[in-house]
Specification:
Distance between the termini: 40 Å
Helix content: under 10%
Shape: globular
Order of helices and strands: EEEEEEEEEEE
Number of helices: 0
Length: about 130
């Protein structure tokens, strides 16, 4: 089993920055992609960003492009989300996820592609 643990959330003023971390532990960890999703109160969980574990290609939701940066440290089995120029509407619980199954459709933005999830970390941006 793989366990994902997020950290780094908190309260920040609009325009500020936060860096989220997601550390993976458990059996030999070799995901195809790792992603960040978020869920605001009363809304569905949505895609934020993803990174290919091998090669490092990244993909972003339009709403965060240019403000957020996803990165990974393969040696530490950790993925990061650097969030700059935060807006009040970025307020949400942020989840990291890993895709390790043999079959991958390529839909990196889809929740169903990911088979492991963290417990989430709260990010609150005040205006």
């Amino acid at each position: 089993q793989v366990q994902l643990v997020e950290s780094g959330g908190g309260l920040v003023q609009a325009g500020g920055s936060l860096r989220l971390s997601c550390a993976a532990s458990g059996r030999t960890f070799s995901p195809r992609i790792m992603g960040w999703f978020r869920q605001a109160p009363g809304k569905e969980r949505e895609f934020v960003a993803t990174i290919r574990w091998s090669g490092g290609s990244t993909y972003y939701a339009d709403s965060v492009k240019g403000r957020f940066t996803i990165s990974r440290d393969n040696a530490k089995n950790t993925v990061y989300l650097q969030m700059n120029s935060l807006k009040p509407w970025d307020t949400a619980v942020y989840y990291c996820a890993a895709q390790t199954r043999a079959y991958y459709s390529g839909a990196y933005y889809s929740l169903t592609e990911y088979d492991y999830w963290g417990q989430g970390t709260q990010v609150t941006v005040s205006s």
